[in-house]
Amino acid sequence: MNQSGLVVASHGRHCWVEDDLGARRICHHRGKKNTAVVGDRVQWLPSQDEGTIESIEPRRNLLYRQDEMRTKSFAANLDQVLMLVAAEPDFSQDQMARALIACHAQGIAPMLVVNKCDLVDAFALAWKRLEPYRRMGESTLALSLKSGAGMAELQGQLNGKTTLVLGPSGAGKSTLVNHLIPSARAATGEISKALHSGRHTTTSTHWYWLDDAHQGALIDSPGFQEFGLHHLDARELARYMPDLQAHLGECKFYNCTHLHEPGCGVRSALDQGLIDPSRYQIYQRLFAQLSPSH
Fold first, then answer.
1. Is the pTM for the entire model greater than 0.70?
2. Rounded distance, CA 97 to CA 114, Å?
3. Nearest CA to 158 among 77, 216, 213?
4. How far is CA 222 from the centre of its chain?
5. Half-sphere exposure of 253 (CA within 13 A, CB side)
6. For residue 218, which of 139, 171, 167, 159 has the smallest C-alpha distance?
7. Are 36 and 53 contacting, i.e. CB atoms less than 8 angstroms apart?
């Protein structure tokens, strides 16, 4: 008889599924392709000491990236994504913008967190680079994992929500996860041993409960170097950039690309200083990359 469960880890063709009583076991997806990701609610069938995923329940959302070669899914049914960058090393604004667009395309609230605010000069520069994002309404938070500054506010924003943590290497993602969930390292080891993933544990994604009542959760995903958006239509791109989206209704033509047409509300807002030039340049580059002729 099928049981309901939550996918709390995945690696290759194996998943670690938690049932409604909190017990976990390895499950395999029925068929050749494993489509269940961390955060999925699934129907699964026990078989001896393992199980088989029979079906995936409808998702609220799915955060994923897609380049020319392959698609990589991060997690499903998210309330928010915590994008962790640091004052040092320098972060890629283009990379961050891509991840934010992927979030907005799925209706997931992003949160930009800048670690190492104790590095005063470097932090001031990093914080200034985020000014366009604060202006367009993105949630931003200053943090120091070294001193603890900002941790109480961050924990308040995590309570009761399912949050995926993303960030480039060197930003302090592992330190943050281990700080919020002291048992994370041990839990990761346990899951990795069960999934036989050994030294490849960093390539897998893990779900951790933030509280005993299981109201909030943190999902730790591997770091990324590129964030492909090939699954998005170039003409839909501006809708997923809040600073551009605010002016879409002001365009003269309904099918305006916001690149060269007369009477464009987006380019008018750019000329008035309402859109940061660096953000518009990101839009231009992405539009070119996502256009069919590219």
1. yes
2. 15
3. 216
4. 11
5. 12
6. 159
7. yes
pLDDT digits (tens, 9 = 90+) for 99-145: 999 999 999 999 999 999 999 999 999 999 999 999 999 999 999 99
Rounded to a whole number of angstroms, the CA Rg of the chain reads: 21
- pLDDT class for 48, splitting at 50, 70, 90? confident
**In Å, what is the CA distance from 132 to each residue of 8, 19, 242?**
35, 43, 11
With residue 204 as reference, give the H or E element that holds it: none
Q: Are strands 80-86 and 162-166 parallel, antiparallel or unpaired?
A: parallel
Q: Where are the alpha helices (DSSP H) in the chain?
A: 93-105, 120-129, 131-135, 151-158, 173-180, 184-194, 242-245, 265-271, 277-290
* 3 state SS of 293: coil
Residue 149 neighbours by CB distance under 10 Å: 13
Query: Which domains are seen in the chain, by residue range?
Result: 3-56 (2.40.50.140), 62-220 (3.40.50.300), 234-290 (1.10.40.50)
186 Cβ contact list (under 8 Å, min separation 6):
none
With beta carbons less than 8 A apart as the criterion, state whether 263 and 269 touch: no
Residue type, 204: S
